[in-house]
Amino acid sequence: MAAAASDAAVRAAASPYENMTSDEVKAKLQRCEFDAAKNPYDFHSPCWLVFNIVRVAVKKVYIGWSVCTKCGSVFKSLSGTSSMQRHIEREHGVVRKNPPEFLKEDVLKALVKYVCKDKVSVQGLDGVGFRDLLQKFLDFGHAHGPLDVNDLLPHRTTVSDHINIEAKKAREKLMPELHAAIVERRSGGTLDTWTTNYTQKHILGFTLSLVTPEFQSRSYNLLMVRFEGAETAENIWESVVKNFAEKYSVTAEDVKKIVMTTDGAQAVLNAMENFDESSYCMDHGLNLTRVILAKKCRFT
């Protein structure tokens, strides 16, 4: 019943776009009115190894079309993927092979062993990144024959170093857009702080939302950093300024121009005095009111 309701909702949201032509969809993708994203639901069809779903960029609503990541061709995909399947077989040589049952059983046993031995969550098995990694290994094996995984996998420190390299590239790519939005006061920020349960480390997260000159809304998780000392207003402000300067080359004077929204934590509220403009999050206020009223009703 829930699945049927969800499917009906998806179809209703996509109905305004069902009469569009492929050229119109491509044009909107090029103008960034539409964007593309991994299909978060269907892992069974091999189409989704090559295709991404097309969404309205601002609303993130699936429009019933999908785009090939290899050549940019677009297809209607709400009612089925047969045309997409023919495309990837004909144009990209991707042919689906049904694995035998004994192989599925071996994979199941290997996954159980992996979860228990490395103490990982079974939820991670549904992750798109995890499945992309497995698909990459399958492709390697098909192209190069049997390989020793120890010869193929890099050391964890190599992976960690490469994450930092890729993060730096991503930040450098974002800098022009961020600088313009901050200076032109087209940006808003939210931050939160918390302390880890076991190590008692202080963590600060910062999200920046902005509106482009084309009136498109975008949001970036810019910071997830540890800061020393207690969670005071001074430490929070210094951590924000320091990390924006180091990672995005944004000065303290420009950081002040970000319009902030915050919860009711006193240290965070005090830190907001350093910004030119800030406001209290009404969702936090309403939720806090709801919790207090529920407790009073329960005990009176």
Describe the structure.
Helix content is 48%, strand content 19%. The strands form two sheets. It has a five-stranded mixed beta sheet with strand order 7-6-5-8-9. Strands 1-2-3-4 form a four-stranded antiparallel beta sheet. The chain is an alpha+beta fold. The chain folds into three domains: 2-92, no CATH class; 102-152, Arc Repressor Mutant, subunit A (Orthogonal Bundle); 172-290, Nucleotidyltransferase, domain 5 (2-Layer Sandwich). Strand 2 (51-56) and strand 3 (61-68) form a beta hairpin.
User: What's the β-strand tally?
Assistant: 9
- What is the radius of gyration? 24 Å
Beta percentage is: 15-25%
Q: What is the average per-residue confidence, as pLDDT, rounded to a whole number?
A: 85
The percent range for helix content is 40-55%
How many structural domains are formed by the residues? 3
Please name the CATH topology of the largest domain: Nucleotidyltransferase, domain 5
* Basic shape: globular
Largest sheet: 5 strands, mixed
